[in-house]
Amino acid sequence: MEFLQTLFDEIIGFLGISQALEILRSGDFSSFTTYEGIVSLIYPIIPLLIILELILGLIYKKPQTKVYKVNFLIYVFNRFIGRFIAIAMVALCIGLFQQYAPFQTTMKWYWIVYGYVVWELGHFVYHYLGHKVRLFWCLHSTHHAPEDMNLSVTHAHFFLEAPYADTIRTTICILLGVHPELLFLIMFIDGTYGAFIHVGENLLKNGRLGFLNKIILTPSHHRVHHAKNPLYMDTNFCNLLNIWDRVFKTYQEEKHDIKIEYGITREMDSGNFMDVYFGEIVALAKDVWRAPGLANKFLYLIMPPGWNHTGEHKTAKVARKSYLESM
């Protein structure tokens, strides 16, 4: 019975309906009009869309079984080993750095806009480093390994990526005056939208969202980010506001004549949990072991993926430059 109860609790937790169930059981339906109540209604949207997307995939005979299988295993694995680490890092960063902020925001609308712009800067920094520093890429590559796009990809993360990401994002936000209360609101909005932009073609064929494609980052932009095409690699690092991609010239729209190829450039078995989760770590360890001298060994840790001590680099920057020159 204890196993069944644990399984039931995990299913309820995945669906995100535990808080809504508590309100329903209390009988105080007016609670749904509060912030907590609204949040309880928003949380289940992404899990339910994942289920709908899977059903539509079966109907369209595009089930993407391999992607769902590996991402489900990643979700289960991460639930056991990395459940509270990210939360602890956020709390630690707030405690350490809030005292050094030159000012504090409030919940006024203009501070919310400011806070979100700052959050996007923090997200850009973490995400950019995740692609440009190979040690961090080992954590982030799990998210890019799936060779199809669907909402389950939002759960495909190495368990240490969230603590590393939230450490950078929280530190930047707190030092630039974003109050923790506002930070948590932004994190909730960003987490929900950040899951949505992984929606696949089974549920949303055209991810451009009409005129919004020119204003915010859409599923189309994020599909580009997950592509291994030379033109698309290492672009669109933002999550909702693509302001920093435009500032730092990493913005790239989806081209109608270039079909997106998902995945990473390393030869791998995207249906193998061990290869998806630990493959880049193994590859990095091999390169460090074989590299001559301590300097080269260290450089393999901090240089971009594809860097080689011989000078024969195969980085995303080299691949993109070569592609653009050949056009």
UniProtKB/TrEMBL annotation:
Please name the GO terms of the biological process aspect recorded for this protein, alphabetically: lipid biosynthetic process; membrane lipid metabolic process
Q: Name one GO cellular component term.
A: endomembrane system
Please give the chief subcellular localization of this protein. membrane
Q: Name one Pfam family in it.
A: FA_hydroxylase
Which top-rank group of organisms is this from?
A: Bacteria
Residue ranges crossing the lipid bilayer per the database entry = 41-60, 72-97, 109-129
Q: Where in the cell is it found?
A: Endomembrane system
The protein here is known as: Sterol desaturase/sphingolipid hydroxylase, fatty acid hydroxylase superfamily
Lineage of the species this protein comes from: Bacteria, Pseudomonadati, Bacteroidota, Flavobacteriia, Flavobacteriales
